[in-house]
């Protein structure tokens, strides 16, 4: 079969910000590149960036980081599966010796499992340095398989991927066990700033978040998700920084929380499944490397620090877009007028 020539698909890209971020991992002002066909996204995120900067900045906390690959093993029956599984879970150091042969950066930190009939769904969880880790964890699992089958001849191979990972699918397990970087972003916006820059009040934003993001998503059958449009910012950020854009599926599963505190607006965006990396596949393009340098994610740091910074900047960008959109939707007609003005 003749190989088709590789071409490129241009996507409009623009820088927004700066975003002011506060925290132990990132304490900086950052210009953020966003690649999107939805042109109102740039001024919307930009408005969120200006307001949060005036409010003192976005506090960002990295809760956890891990990348998973689930494998599928078969036993003769459930009892045999349980015995082998319990034994495997007691041998983490030995498993890590095998993993070390597959990568300098992959480290097995945990295992979770489900047994269904005679089937073992084994979810292997790794840290992966500055890479998002898709290929790294699959390669590690591929190296582990022969070792497991040699140590446990009563088991047999079924699949290198068992969907309990769970990659690029909207599932509950990722939010519960974690997949990628888990980041919480928070800001407190004074009442006067809400009125002057967002044309709304803290009470209106809180009420809309409850009625739209929480109740509306519940009625729609949303899964571990309560947000207005995380996916918009994630896709634009992922395309600009060379990420696997399909991971916005699980990345967009996150929660917005808002409260009125002493008359001001406390606003938070939680993103449990940010799968991003500063090295690896997709990062060799010139514009991607330039963008990663602009964000400050190509520095000489300890392994994993650049990827953590990237995830935090991404999460702060999401908060800015969420804040701006929710504020706009508290006012009849504002959302559509901005789209008509910018897109028609």
Number of domains: 2
CATH structural class of the largest domain: Alpha Beta
CATH superfamily of the largest domain: 3-hydroxy-3-methylglutaryl-coenzyme A Reductase, Chain A, domain 2
Helical run tally: 12
CATH architecture name of the largest domain? Alpha-Beta Complex
CATH structural fold name of the largest domain = 3-hydroxy-3-methylglutaryl-coenzyme A Reductase, Chain A, domain 2
The coarse overall form would be globular
Structure, explained:
- The radius of gyration is 22 Å and the shape is globular.
- It is α+β, with helices and mostly antiparallel strands and 344 residues long.
- β1 and β2 form a beta hairpin.
- It starts with 12 loop residues before the first strand and ends with a helix.
- The chain is built from twelve helices and nine strands.
- The protein has two domains: 215 residues, 3-hydroxy-3-methylglutaryl-coenzyme A Reductase, Chain A, domain 2 (Alpha-Beta Complex); 94 residues, Alpha-Beta Plaits (2-Layer Sandwich).
- Strands 1, 2, 3, 4, 5, 6, 7, 8 and 9 form a nine-stranded mixed sheet that branches.
What characteristics describe this protein?
nine-stranded mixed β-sheet; 2 domains; 3-hydroxy-3-methylglutaryl-coenzyme A Reductase, Chain A, domain 2; alpha+beta; 344 residues; Alpha-Beta Plaits
